[in-house]
């Protein structure tokens, strides 16, 4: 028996638009972000997907994206679990800062290392490896078993929490995942084999 796992990064947030480090801060979606979420929902509906379970983070931009997608599909009564294990990477002292201002304060190379290294966290924050350390156990314990029972499951989360998930699902190396970008509002659909390996991957682009 194989199941289906759909991953969606939330639509553009107000802080994405302003070029701010967001992390665990909780800005809302922009008008564009709302439309990105709705468009993702329309593509899922057109492809015939309905869901047995949903999972999202404790942050409102991911929750609202999930809500907008389910409204488009006509599944507003879906059982959705919220858990901070799926929260965005915690940017610590960078959160709320403009990325250009951060480069001025700490230097371009240092900020680049914090953003793009696998295991170097910003001050008082998390690296991608740290993010994975809370995402992976939650996925293995709470999400993957439902998929392997043959269910169709949707996860609405964040760029870095989803990159950590993709790394585990696809068996990527740290170097590979650092080059991997996840577009806002674009569903990534995995069909999983019974042994949890990927049978098929589809990206529902516009």
Question: Top keywords for this entry?
Answer:
His_Pase_superF_clade-1, Phosphogly_mut1, 43% helix, 206 residues, alpha/beta, EC 5.4.2.11, Rossmann fold, six-stranded mixed sheet
Write the layout of secondary structure elements.
Elements: E1 3-9, H1 14-17, H2 31-46, E2 53-56, H3 60-73, E3 80-82, H4 99-106, H5 108-116, H6 128-148, E4 152-157, H7 159-170, H8 174-178, E5 188-192, E6 198-203
Helix pairs in contact: 2-3, 4-5, 6-7
Describe the structure.
By secondary structure, the chain is of the alpha/beta class. It has one domain: Phosphoglycerate mutase-like (Rossmann fold, 3-Layer(aba) Sandwich). Helices cover 43% and strands 15% of the residues. It has a 6-stranded mixed sheet. α2 (31-46) crosses α3 and α4 (99-106) crosses α5. The mean pLDDT is 96.
Rg from alpha-carbon coordinates: 17 Å
How much strand content do the residues show? 15-25%
Count of extended strands: 6
Biggest sheet layout: 6 strands, mixed
Number of domains: 1
Poorly predicted regions:
none
Protein name: 2,3-bisphosphoglycerate-dependent phosphoglycerate mutase
Site (Transition state stabilizer): 158
Pathway: Carbohydrate degradation; glycolysis; pyruvate from D-glyceraldehyde 3-phosphate: step 3/5
Pfam family, one: His_Phos_1
Question: What's the short story on this structure?
Answer:
The protein is an alpha/beta fold and 206 residues long. The chain has 8 helices and 6 strands, in the order βααβαβαααβααββ.
């Amino acid at each position: 028996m194989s199941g289906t796992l759909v991953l969606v990064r939330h639509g553009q947030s107000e802080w994405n638009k302003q070029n701010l480090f967001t992390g665990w801060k909780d800005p809302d979606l922009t008008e564009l972000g709302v439309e990105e979420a709705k468009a993702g929902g329309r593509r899922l509906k057109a492809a015939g997907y309905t869901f047995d379970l949903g999972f999202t983070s404790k942050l409102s931009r991911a929750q609202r994206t999930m809500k907008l997608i389910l409204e488009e599909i006509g599944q507003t009564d879906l059982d959705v679990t919220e858990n901070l294990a799926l929260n965005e990477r915690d940017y610590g002292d960078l959160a709320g800062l403009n990325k250009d201002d951060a480069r001025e304060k700490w230097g371009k190379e240092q900020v680049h290392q914090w953003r793009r290294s696998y295991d170097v966290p910003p001050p008082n924050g998390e690296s991608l490896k740290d993010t994975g350390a809370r995402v992976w156990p939650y996925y293995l314990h709470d999400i993957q078993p439902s998929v392997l029972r043959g269910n169709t499951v949707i996860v609405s989360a964040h760029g870095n929490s989803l990159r950590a998930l993709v790394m585990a699902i696809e068996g990527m190396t740290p170097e590979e995942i650092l080059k991997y970008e996840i577009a806002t509002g674009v569903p990534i659909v995995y069909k999983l084999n019974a042994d949890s390996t990927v049978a098929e991957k589809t990206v529902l682009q516009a």
